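Notes from hallway chat w/ T.B., transcribed later so I don't forget. T.B. wanted the structure written out for a chain they're using in a teaching module, and asked if we could keep both sequence and structure tokens in one place. Agreed to drop them here.
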Amino acid sequence: MEVQPARFCRRGFTLVEALTVIVVVGIISAIAIPRINIDAYTVNGSVRGVTSVLSYAQRLAISLQHNVIVAFDVPNNRLRSHEDSDNDGVIDVGERVAFTPLSEGVVFGRGTANAFTIGPNSVNFTRTQDAMPAVLFRRDGSASESGGFYIIPSRSIAKGSAHEARACDIVRATGRVTWSRYLNGVWTRGD
């Protein structure tokens, strides 16, 4: 029986090849990372999350055929959704309550941005629940009033910038929620 010589089989990378890849990735990262606007991604994600919560509250009021109240807990940067099964405006035992926080680093406010059509305050609703501004969605899908609120990254406020401010507004008759961004001194509808 004849033994065949072992063939040289190259697997893996050499140290030089691995270091070359690491250096190239490092150079590309050094160029790209400072250009990424993390605040824009964070506030856009937060505004989309908040508008989803409000749209869900509206749909829930229609499907359950009772009021759903969304209160704005401004000091804690979160929303409180209350399924008001007896339509009395009070959180009773057995009624479901859920909290939705804003993204980390995002707060209610507009910084130095001009006021949008929704009003000048961080949250512009006259109805309150537990001393928090609130909007009520009725079983026909309408909202208790037209109004809205602003959110902005806390770093933008610290910098005195309004570039990343967002405004959400709710139409009373339809309960529809839309949002806008503050860009170059003008509010424009978001996507």
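Follow-up for T.B.: The chain has a mean pLDDT of 90. Might be a good example for the class.
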